[in-house]
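Hi,

I'm pasting everything inline rather than attaching a file, because the server keeps stripping attachments. The sequence lines come first, and each chain or strand is labelled.
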Amino acid sequence: MTNDVLTYMHGLGQAARDASRVLASASTAQKNNALLATAQELEQASQSLLAANAKDMAAGRANGLDDAMLDRLELTPKRIEEMIEGLRQVAALPDPIGEIQDMRYVPSGIQLGKMRVPLGVIGIIYESRPNVTVEAASLCLKSGNATILRGGSEAIHSNQAIAECIVRALATTGLPATAVQVVATTDRAAVGALITMPEFVDVIVPRGGKGLIERISREAKVPVIKHLDGVCHVYVDEFADAKKAIRVADNSKTQRYAPCNAMETLLVHSSQTESVLKPLVAIFQEKGVELRGCSRCLEHFADAMQPATEEDWHAEYNAPILAVKILDSLDEAINHINTYSSQHTDSIITENYTHSRTFLTRVDSSSVMINASTRFADGFEYGLGAEIGISTDKLHARGPVGLLGLTSEKYIVFGDGHIRG
Amino acid sequence: MTNDVLTYMHGLGQAARDASRVLASASTAQKNNALLATAQELEQASQSLLAANAKDMAAGRANGLDDAMLDRLELTPKRIEEMIEGLRQVAALPDPIGEIQDMRYVPSGIQLGKMRVPLGVIGIIYESRPNVTVEAASLCLKSGNATILRGGSEAIHSNQAIAECIVRALATTGLPATAVQVVATTDRAAVGALITMPEFVDVIVPRGGKGLIERISREAKVPVIKHLDGVCHVYVDEFADAKKAIRVADNSKTQRYAPCNAMETLLVHSSQTESVLKPLVAIFQEKGVELRGCSRCLEHFADAMQPATEEDWHAEYNAPILAVKILDSLDEAINHINTYSSQHTDSIITENYTHSRTFLTRVDSSSVMINASTRFADGFEYGLGAEIGISTDKLHARGPVGLLGLTSEKYIVFGDGHIRG
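And the predicted assembly:
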């Protein structure tokens, strides 16, 4: 069986590699037409999508999936509408491929610049969320990449129904039907194959829990654009405007608890204990946020806080829990962040020019903010149009990853018979 | 013993990680001063460098190193001069770190852009060429990265002598002495440790033969910027100017045989057999280049060529040997290149506008050229000032890698108390 899966995956890989050659020089119109045709197919097939999803939901319930998983698995008319709208938005984005930049003459007389090109074949591994199938496929297609999608096995019927729509849409536009392929087996060996065939796959983008991503990173023989965790900080500086500090810290934590860009640790300069931390404690208490404080916090707010342990400084709660620490300098804050942050997003609240510059330079995170909520760290807020994920890597793509993160550049050289002397 | 090496390497790693925090916000002047001070130390220490190198050379001869290896290992007064000159050139390059780009307001009212930052800690693994120690250290230092250098064991005395100069130079400039560390053991376990400690090392740059690089890529748990091979093509199009074609093909092959950007396969449109290939065959014969041709070549030039086998189309000779193929269309040429090229550098010779655009778009290599010698694909020729290597990867850095390839970008956000609604 495993051998069959390997053969099957290599087949998908070869087909994707071949399709990627065609996609790389597909016109913007062809790619947009395929996206809009997919939108139309989804619209027309919405009843059969719902029916396929009902099978997955029934099996999921029978297999005891929890409510959160069932929620992510479910397709509703509204969610299908959102997928369709997403396709139209990606079609409306500018096409990055073929863009030529910085053409300049160098002393030898050749003219030299860079052209933006697709990466080639992208493998996406994700949990049982059928909308990711459409989202990921659309970004890969727009950026001229062939893609192999491997969603969670609980969503197999939904994903296959979506795949049929995409294949029909591709057929109408003259692009290869294998430009987007959805893995049709739930055998786990398919994931192992997908991440170990560098001859066919140029990069893997895993989307899901930290455990999944760590395992894939460890076992992959192909580069991985990964998003591990979001342990985000807000530091209220000695020179913070108290109103802004309260507003931003509150929003960073409570606007939504689950996202990776929500604040998990609040750092407060000791001089702001009364002016900022005290009113914030009241707000968080009212909103039902559990507070875990350092020993100095407990001196002031013993009634409102539990003691924080070493694990709390590392924790990504994604929940109404917040770690709080009082400290005495910008230096201490930066050191805490560079030690415990997951290098996702960290923000300083300050009116001091030098402190803002120091924080900006020394904090080593993918988004570093001044007087702004960490919740802004997101591809849509950043104007990328859409995002395939948020990278916590430093190489290639860092922070929210949009279409550009799915591309590379090649050097191009124009000569007139130039030779090297 | 291996445990000792692990402990030793983790010590270097921790020290490098700590140093990288300081280096990341070091001023341009500090970094340049360190480079110029290193130049001065090398100058003053040239006698002891030559003495240390003499030990390596004696041991190398005793151990039967071949002439090419001994040549790469040797330090001469002229080579020390070149290392010193290289340091001054890197000091003169603009500092990429801290550069802020594209600050723009997005609809929420935050202002958003990107700041260029170092990668952090770079591990360099290379063969027994002491000049690489200085070259790699200087590029890493200028780009604000801490570096751990592991040169070939045959160069251990030379590398330690160079390391002493760098450490003395760093001490005069207030930068951490551990900003540049040269591994002091020849135990091979050190390489294994260096490539498997992602907590301390952000990227590995191996420099050396394909075997070394493949092994490192396979075993590394850290991203690798790698240069595998250079199977470069020149395609003489139906619409080529014969004079330019002859000039460029000759230069691409014979200007130097060893470099990775030298042509290894010549593709000629059948209509150019008499006008271009015939005179080229004469030139190559005169220069002693062994020719291996396809069956159609042999029909025309049986006296001048051996038959090419399938392996010849894959071969990186780095020697006066050339594979030659006659074909009938641009399509055939592009397909041949996308099948056999190592995606390093490929050039078309043509006067046809549409053919030039098609080649540029469809050839998937790190440098794609029109009417120019493949020999131009090089960091110095491209104006990067210096190069740490040529990447055959698509992610992160592609083609000649200069200072920018050793950096990343982070998003920076300026607000005035902005929160997400």
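Chain A has two domains: 2-225+400-414, 232-376.

If the labels don't parse on your end, tell me and I'll reformat.
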